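Tip: read the tokens left to right.
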């Protein structure tokens, strides 16, 4: 997974350089954009090393704008219309990977309508139609269309978008996400501001559309901000060119200080131990620091065929422990949002299908009715506390050779 993330990131950097070359006209500017994306844009504070949907979707999004630039260079003829449809198809693929990755397609449509007015309606329509093709293919290939629509659209509206939940809660999440985003992308934002006026109109619209995509996610996890890296790198490269050619010394000194600050913030994380790295990158997810010990306990106290259950959600634990989950929902938002998910958890506890239950978060956090806690008390007994997490064993599970240490394992 890490190798795939690195390969995709390298392709995104290359595509960003090509797009900068097409829009900003200059090999040095293009190389600068690639350097910014590969260094500042690869900050650990926005989880750039993970194989996230935002990273995967960035590649077809940037390629979509590359196709669109091909259309702008030769906007007449059948080949131009095919290029435009290809740009739309790549946008559709990006949206299928991550619903917030509509930024490239939106930027192209807005640019056409802004520059061409009524004459831009036809090419904008072709681009949108091209985007709908992969979406329609995905919908048609689904086993059940209603399930597919809920997975792609309804689930996000239920529990993972800006349009639901309290405004105060969303603003609080945004405020918590801004410090790591600032550590990662502060320098790029500063350089983009310097190069804003001299940047191509399409690039500026693209950045605005990417910001809308990040805001639309609603939950403001740090990796959401990866969507901003390609447009910020393009605009930041223009900013570097502007500083180099015409900026006064105070502006150059400010940019140099920002670069030094970015380096000073990132290098200690690179040199730190694994535990310290996790604490620096995920300060509000302490279980990520201790999951290795918890997974080791699970492996020692269960057989490979036995299932386990994390309440509420600890997706990486199942992977690290190499044990299948007792229910199919791996994140707390799944349980909170998907109809029937809580009932499936209750069935797993009632039938004791999980050999071990690991209470990573209080049961009442997602189930204030108390039903989860009641079933846990009735069907399981507490056997250990590992890295601050209480572990419960099913009352009907036979003691196996895998069971070793008693209740105070740490």
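Filled-in amino acids:
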């Amino acid at each position: 997974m890490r190798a795939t993330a690195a390969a995709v990131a390298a392709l995104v950097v290359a595509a960003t350089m090509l797009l900068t070359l097409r829009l900003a006209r200059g090999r040095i500017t293009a190389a600068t954009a690639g350097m910014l994306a590969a260094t500042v844009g690869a900050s650990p504070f926005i989880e750039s090393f993970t194989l996230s949907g935002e990273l995967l979707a960035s590649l077809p999004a940037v390629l979509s704008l590359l196709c669109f630039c091909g259309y702008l260079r030769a906007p007449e003829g059948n080949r131009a219309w095919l290029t435009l449809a290809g740009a739309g198809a790549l946008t559709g693929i990006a949206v299928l990977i991550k619903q917030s990755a509509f930024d490239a397609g939106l930027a192209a449509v807005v640019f056409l309508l802004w520059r061409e007015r009524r004459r831009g309606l036809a090419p904008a329509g072709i681009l949108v139609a091209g985007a709908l093709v992969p979406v329609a293919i995905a919908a048609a290939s689904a086993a059940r269309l209603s399930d597919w629509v809920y997975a792609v659209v309804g689930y996000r509206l239920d529990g993972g978008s800006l349009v639901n939940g309290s405004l105060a809660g969303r603003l609080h999440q945004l405020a918590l996400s801004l410090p790591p985003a600032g550590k990662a992308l502060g320098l790029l934002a500063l350089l983009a501001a310097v190069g804003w006026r001299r940047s191509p109109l399409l690039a500026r619209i693209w950045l605005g559309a990417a910001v809308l995509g990040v805001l639309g996610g609603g939950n403001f996890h740090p990796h959401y901000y990866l969507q901003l890296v390609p447009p910020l790198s393009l605009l930041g490269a223009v900013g570097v060119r502007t500083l180099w050619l015409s900026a006064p010394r105070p502006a150059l000194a400010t940019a140099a200080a920002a670069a030094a600050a970015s380096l000073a913030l990132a290098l200690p994380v690179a040199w730190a131990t694994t535990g310290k790295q996790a604490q620096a990158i995920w300060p509000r997810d302490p279980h990520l620091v201790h999951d290795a010990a918890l997974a080791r306990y699970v492996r020692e106290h269960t057989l490979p065929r036995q299932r386990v259950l994390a309440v509420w959600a600890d997706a990486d634990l199942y992977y690290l422990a190499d044990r299948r989950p007792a229910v199919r929902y791996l994140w707390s938002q799944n349980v909170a949002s998907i109809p029937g998910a809580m009932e499936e958890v209750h069935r797993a506890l009632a039938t004791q299908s999980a050999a071990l239950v690991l209470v990573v978060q209080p049961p009442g956090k997602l189930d204030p009715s108390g039903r989860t806690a009641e079933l846990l008390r009735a069907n399981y007994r507490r056997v250990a506390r590992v890295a601050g997490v209480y572990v419960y064993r099913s009352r009907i599970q036979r003691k196996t050779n895998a069971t070793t240490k008693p209740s105070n394992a740490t």
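The chain has a mean pLDDT of 88. The CA atoms of residues 196 and 204 lie 7 Å apart.
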